[in-house]
Design a protein that fits this description.
Rossmann fold; seven-stranded mixed beta sheet; 17% strand; binds S-adenosylmethionine
């Protein structure tokens, strides 16, 4: 089998199948074997693992994933890629290929049908829906061990940011609630066909085994985070009272009990600060 990372091979396969790249689906195929292997290494994939790959494309990463994992569930939205995938992966008996939109697929039902107890996600994600895919995976309470994905560098920096900078925001705190994210490595746009307009990076997110909060506390925590960052240039007193259904007096009281100065900005608060705010909100208003 030819190397699927060779641009000439990619072009030949696409031409033979009369396939034209669909910009709408964020199709940028990997052309570097090293990067493919590094992504799989970052995911720490072993023969014990079931892997969910979102957007297999022509199967460049799917092939080595099948070799290194116990089984691979590959979900591809573009029906025009299915015959190509079937051809390129015809020898892989541990592959389940689904022609579905990952945003609509009932993943829980799918893995239950297959008797899969837990799985790891490995993907070179379509960039037009990076955040909804990641948040969708995290919010659905799925038995995911880890998520290792290539995404836009700028989004990777937001997810792995520390408090105090412009990259730190609601996405950072939300991903930090569910996982322990690390930026594995940066990838130049030159290793894709066609080249995307932005640089990319691979992040690895180990998913926490236990929920950190009770349902009410979690709900309030996420509302407080969203409200705080809704006007990130304003003081906390203003952004929280503008965006939460309580008056300024109550917000003042919540900030005081949480020992957070009212003139601070959301981006200076760490996870514990938001957690104290959520607890105080419940004690004072519920
Ligand atoms: N894994 C391949 C690679 O690395 O060469 C392709 C990656 S490409 C960046 C993203 C892939 O996701 C494309 O194959 C695209 O058709 C697919 N895709 C886009 N939107 C999708 C969705 N909603 N559900 C499933 N796959 C999707």
């Amino acid at each position: 089998m030819e190397r699927l990372t060779s641009p000439r091979t990619i072009e030949e396969i696409l031409k033979r199948h009369g396939f034209t790249m669909n910009k709408r689906f964020g199709q940028n195929f990997l052309t570097d074997e090293n990067i493919v292997n590094k992504i799989i290494d970052s995911g720490e994939i072993t023969k014990e693992d079931t892997v969910l790959e979102i957007g297999p494309g022509i199967g460049t990463m799917t092939r080595p994933l099948c070799d290194r994992a116990k089984s691979v569930i590959a979900v591809e939205i573009d029906r025009m890629l299915i015959p190509i995938l079937k051809e390129n992966l015809s020898d892989k008996t541990n592959l389940i290929l689904l022609n579905e939109d990952i945003m609509k697929l009932d993943i829980k039902n799918e893995i239950e049908k297959l008797g899969v107890k837990s799985f790891k996600v490995v993907a070179n994600l379509p960039y037009y829906i990076t955040t909804p895919i990641i948040m969708g995976l995290l919010e659905k309470n799925l038995p995911i061990e880890s998520i290792t994905v290539m995404i836009q560098k700028e989004v990777a920096e937001r997810i792995t940011a520390k408090p105090g900078g412009k990259d730190y925001g609601a996405l950072t705190v939300a991903c930090g609630y569910y996982t322990d994210p690390t930026l594995a490595f940066v990838v130049p746009s030159t290793v894709f066909f066609p080249r995307p307009k932005v640089d990319s990076a691979v992040i690895n997110m180990k998913v926490r085994k236990e929920e950190m909060m009770e349902p009410l506390e979690k709900k309030v925590f996420f509302s407080v985070v969203k409200a705080a960052f809704a006007n990130r240039r304003k003081t906390l007193l203003n952004s929280l009272s503008n965006n939460l259904p309580i008056g300024k007096d109550k917000v003042k009281e919540i900030l005081e009990v949480s020992e957070i100065q009212e003139n601070r900005r959301a981006e200076t608060l760490d996870f514990d600060d938001f957690s104290r705010l959520a607890k105080a909100y419940i004690n004072i208003t519920v």
